[in-house]
Fold this protein.
Amino acid sequence: PICWPTVVLLAAAALDDAGAKVARHVRAAAATALLLSFGLSARARDLPSALASELRPPLGRRSGVKVGWSLTLHPLTASAVSKARTQDDTLEIGATDPNRAWLQHLCPALKAMARTTPLLLDMTAPTYLNLFRRAVKSVRGGHFHPHQLRHGGASADGALKVPELTMLMRGRWAARKSLLRYMRPAQFLRQLENFSKSNLVLVDAAV
């Protein structure tokens, strides 16, 4: 799994990668996909195909359901389904860890940026993969793949003792044994232990 501080550094590297020869808003989309893929335990293809109309603002207590910014993947109004053959998977952003609650603050700008395209993030999957690889090379992060963000999100939630049912629903795993293959809290915590203090300062600056 990829640990959260590494994800933040990768997102910052993708955003600042002027040498990638793509527009800044595309780099911003890739950075956002990195952060949300971890936070939502998303598959690599989920964020590049997410629809702008499915990012929804918070609901207050007056509505009867208090919920923050949420994103629905594979909506019933579209033909696509998840790997587990599900649709309408609605996930609250930054809900399982107070240290990731600031992701909610990205959502208003993200919603505003998406007015010119049906997609939430204005980038193609190959562009995302290229920017991801460039970011990994920039921070010397090793041999990472976007799917490891899903591993990282599950492992972080496991370390935080998030209930398994909540994790199953957020990750859209069809069975508990599938979740357990992804959830590696010991590896996640080991990575955090090895994270240098100087790099943690960079993470704080990026956030």
Q: What stands out?
A: The chain has nine helices and three strands. The chain has a mean pLDDT of 86.
